Amino acid sequence: DLSKQLRDVETLQTATHQALAALAAAVASGAVDKVEAWLQALAKLHPLVEYSEAVAAAKACALLAVGKPHKASAACKLGYTAPPSLAKAPWRLWLLTQAQYQLGDMQAALKWATRLASVLQQEVASAGWQSEYEQEAEAFGGNSVHALAGAGLQLPSQEEAALNWADQLANIVQKVGSPGWQSEYEQEAEAFGGNSVQALAGAGLQLPSREEVGCVVSHLTALSALKEEGNAAVKDGNLRLAVDKYSAALALLPPPGYAAVLHCNRAAAHQGLDSLVDALADCGRAKALDPGYARGTTRMASVLL
């Protein structure tokens, strides 16, 4: 009967909240095996759990925290038929940016960061306008304000918004907090796991500001450009310039996987300049940063021969 169904729903909600809390504790402890165990426990709670935006955000955050960007990226993807705008969820774009960055794929990271910047710019430019993502997310887990709170994501206060994003964003934050106001994403998320503000709060996720995303985009653009300029210099035979370009990219402190590629590329340029000691040193750095990077080993072999 209806009362039993309601009790079942309440029981599932309680179990899900307990599992999310245990997952957060496992992440804080740094115990990868415990994190994976609680992720499996979440998946086994009920088939409908996979439709929760809150759970998806928590899973992706946990996987990123324990150094599993491949799995985090997969957790961000929609594994079911859903309104296209759910793919534009700010939390999803932000975590995909981080996952691809950790994997060393600057082009993919730049793609997601650019999309996030566009979404945030839309929100600022159209205060009070309900975005497509927000409207559709209501059917997929609840009002985005509540969902983000549940995942650990915090929107700025009205005062912070006024300082950081000017009066337009302050107006957005004020309307989000008004009873009865629901954006497009928030309306559609209702059937998919709860209000997104609550979801992100539960996952311990902090979304960046529009300005911070802009800085991320600039950083990723610079990394990609410097690497490509170095590659072009190698093709043109300007090896000294190539060394300078790769060195400039490394000075931006890229993630280990990408840094390994840059060191390997710089090793090739040093080798062409007969700077074999420098070439060998760069090969060693590449192997240390990414032991599974085969080119680091083959480049070292070519230098030694």
UniProtKB/TrEMBL annotation:
SUPFAM superfamilies: TPR-like (SSF48452). It comes from Haematococcus lacustris. This is J domain-containing protein. Coiled coil: none annotated. The lineage of its organism: Eukaryota, Viridiplantae, Chlorophyta, core chlorophytes, Chlorophyceae.
